[in-house]
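Reviewer 2 asked us to include a model.

Predict the structure of this chain.
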Amino acid sequence: MATVLITGCDRGLGEEFTLQYAARGDRVIATCLDPEAFGKTHRLGANVEPVKLDVTDETAVLQLAAKLDGVAIDVLINNAGIPGPHPALEETDLTLWRSMLEVNLIAPFVISKAFAGHVAQSEQKVIAFITSRMGSIGLNNTGRSYAYRSSKAGLNMVMKSLAIDLGPREICVLGIHPGNVSAQPGRGLTVSESVACMRDVIDHSGPHQTGTFYNYNGQILPW
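Predicted model (structure tokens):
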């Protein structure tokens, strides 16, 4: 049984990661803005612990890390993030841009730094960042979305540097694009399909894969 810490579990990918890891019997520490509502929505077993956490609150992050002192975390999934919108140049909202940088870029760094010791104590030793191909400079052929693109491009650089700095501790640091996820049938991957594929990438990763930017299906993406 692995121990998995996931951020942003109130809905979407984080919610599905929690349910899938829990279903296979892993211990899941699921951080949420509203853990009470999360617990009411799902029938959670004893192996799931919903925890209240605002990922932009560094003090709260450090307090949680201290509370979990001595707990070996096999997989840390930095999932919490602001997904959009994706406006054109003239409609770029600087206030939203600053929020995206705080949530999508700085918070995952703070969390990874706080829990690196916990991950290093584990067997699996993986830190995964749910990023986006929209953060790839090489794949940007359509422009727009300055806030979101820059937050994810920055996250990719943080991930790459952490892979180097945490290499001596044998921690595998990955960036994973979840694919085109849609709630509408036939328009893309379902949330369940995306998470199942990403879990497979995580399960098959090790020290030699650290610092890699993956598509949900294991394909390596360009920076």
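The mean pLDDT is 95. Residues 177 and 215 are 5 Å apart (CA to CA). We have added this to the supplementary material.
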